[in-house]
């Protein structure tokens, strides 16, 4: 354990907090969708430069981007492997309804998942650790990973492909990864995680049902794709109920049903279904996808229609299960003794999974719900706003992880 006075650590955090709040609100006001986080990327690089933290920008170029927005920074340390700390920078295509003074100025885009808070926390950790490194050596090298496109774009996978976990100038490979997420349902001050699966594998699907359209008054001359697609919506619900072990977790949700754009008396030739498949186990995920394809095809065939199903949807990547290793959770518990390890896994997806598939990792959540309140707007809600009172908690957690410093 690194022998640093906890009071000194908290003093440094308190000194940085006013600027971190300004940074967080600035990021909230200027959001960018996946692979479009140019403002956030520039602000991250500006703050790292001010703190004299070496960094490399331009990583994780998106499919339609000329320049990547990902940033990797590092501080040297005594150990042979670095500890990695990650923040995501992208926002969501949601129209903000918070009414706050720092509300988004980008129409139809907002930080509804707290990535502005995550980014500000990692900037804060970099600043505090850089100050601690002055005149001394950190116990282990630290890698700060600011990634784009967590919201479906698999930015983590592109960051890994660009070498964010590999040996870098004056920085060894990353041996362990840690990431955090603000959690509106947990009270401010709580930190929670679990061993094993913590977020689900996810895949988005699109099914095109093709029949034969015609006049609605003569359905017997047609093969109605709407009737076939309606049957599919009901039939796929049997997959989880009858093909998955009842003890296991899985979900299939149809979230879009698109058909017809002509007159009210015309049966269209095609209908489209979109949605998501999720599971907390890779084997279960394989069963769900295989049976989904089979049930979709057979259900449509009963109505004289054909189908084409795909999981390759532009801008939406398939995510694996995020798995917290016992080793990494144990390291987290050692430096955060008040950590609760009873968090229930969730069916939400998280591209931190790509890091956890490469190195021992731990993903944890920090409570956002203010004292005296039973609830607050949840993630992906147009009225959600990150709680600035949680910034210092997140910075301290990341710093303790980086320093291997036990809590008091």
Protein architecture, described:
The chain has ten helices and 15 strands. It has 408 residues and is α+β, with helices and mostly antiparallel strands. The protein is elongated, with a radius of gyration of 23 Å. The protein starts with 5 loop residues before the first helix and ends in a 5-residue tail after the last helix. The strands form four sheets. Strands 1-2-4-3-5-15-6 form a seven-stranded mixed β-sheet, sandwiched between helices. A four-stranded antiparallel β-sheet has the order 10-12-8-13, covered by helices on one side. A two-stranded antiparallel ribbon has the order 7-14. It folds into two domains: 6-199 and 321-403, Aminopeptidase (3-Layer(aba) Sandwich), CATH 3.40.630.10; 201-310, Alpha-Beta Plaits. The mean pLDDT is 96. The protein is 31% helix and 23% strand. Strand 3 (82-88), helix 3 and strand 4 form a beta-alpha-beta unit. Helix 3 crosses helix 10.
Task: Give the SSE layout.
Layout: H1 6-29, H2 38-50, E1 55-59, E2 70-75, E3 82-88, H3 115-133, E4 142-147, H4 155-161, E5 174-187, E6 191-192, E7 196-199, E8 201-210, E9 214-215, H5 225-235, H6 237-243, E10 250-259, E11 266-267, E12 270-279, H7 282-301, E13 306-310, E14 322-324, H8 326-335, H9 353-356, E15 361-369, H10 391-403
Parallel strand pairs: 3-4, 3-5, 5-15
Antiparallel strand pairs: 1-2, 2-4, 6-15, 7-14, 8-12, 8-13, 9-11, 10-12
């Amino acid at each position: 354990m690194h022998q640093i006075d906890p009071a000194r650590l908290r003093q440094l955090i308190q000194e940085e907090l006013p600027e971190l709040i300004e940074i967080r609100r600035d990021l909230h006001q200027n959001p960018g969708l996946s692979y479009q986080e140019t403002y956030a990327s520039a602000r991250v690089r500006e703050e790292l430069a001010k703190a004299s933290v070496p960094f490399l920008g331009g990583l994780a170029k998106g499919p339609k981007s000329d320049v990547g927005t990902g940033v990797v920074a590092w501080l040297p340390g005594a150990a042979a492997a670095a500890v990695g700390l990650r923040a995501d920078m992208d926002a969501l295509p949601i129209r903000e309804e918070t009414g706050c003074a720092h509300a988004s100025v980008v129409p139809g885009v907002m930080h509804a998942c707290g990535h502005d808070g995550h980014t500000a926390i990692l900037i804060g950790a970099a600043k505090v650790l850089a100050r601690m490194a002055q005149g001394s050596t950190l116990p282990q090298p630290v890698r700060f990973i600011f990634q784009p496109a967590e919201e479906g774009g698999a930015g983590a996978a592109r960051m890994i492909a660009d070498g964010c976990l590999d040996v870098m100038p004056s920085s060894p490979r990353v041996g362990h990864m840690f990431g955090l997420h603000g959690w509106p349902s947990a009270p401010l001050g709580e930190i929670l995680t679990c061993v094993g699966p913590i977020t689900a594998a996810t895949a988005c699907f699109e099914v095109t049902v093709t029949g034969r359209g015609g006049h609605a008054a003569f359905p017997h001359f047609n093969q109605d794709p709407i009737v076939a697609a309606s049957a599919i919506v009901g039939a796929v619900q049997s997959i989880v109920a009858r093909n998955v072990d009842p003890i296991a977790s899985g979900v299939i949700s149809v979230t879009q049903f698109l058909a017809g754009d002509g007159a009210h008396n015309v049966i269209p030739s095609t209908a489209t279904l979109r949605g998501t498949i999720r599971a907390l186990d890779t084997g279960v995920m394989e069963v769900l996808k295989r049976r989904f394809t089979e049930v979709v095809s057979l259900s449509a065939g009963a109505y004289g229609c054909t189908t084409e199903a795909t999981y390759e949807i532009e801008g939406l990547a398939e995510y694996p299960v995020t798995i917290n290793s016992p080793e990494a959770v144990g390291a987290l518990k050692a430096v955060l003794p008040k950590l609760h390890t009873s968090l229930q896994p969730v069916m939400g997806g998280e591209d931190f999974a790509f890091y956890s598939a490469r190195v021992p990792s731990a993903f944890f959540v920090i409570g956002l719900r203010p004292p005296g309140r039973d609830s607050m707007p949840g993630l992906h809600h147009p009225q959600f706003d990150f709680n600035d009172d949680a910034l210092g908690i997140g910075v301290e957690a990341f710093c303790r992880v980086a320093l291997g410093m036990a809590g008091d």
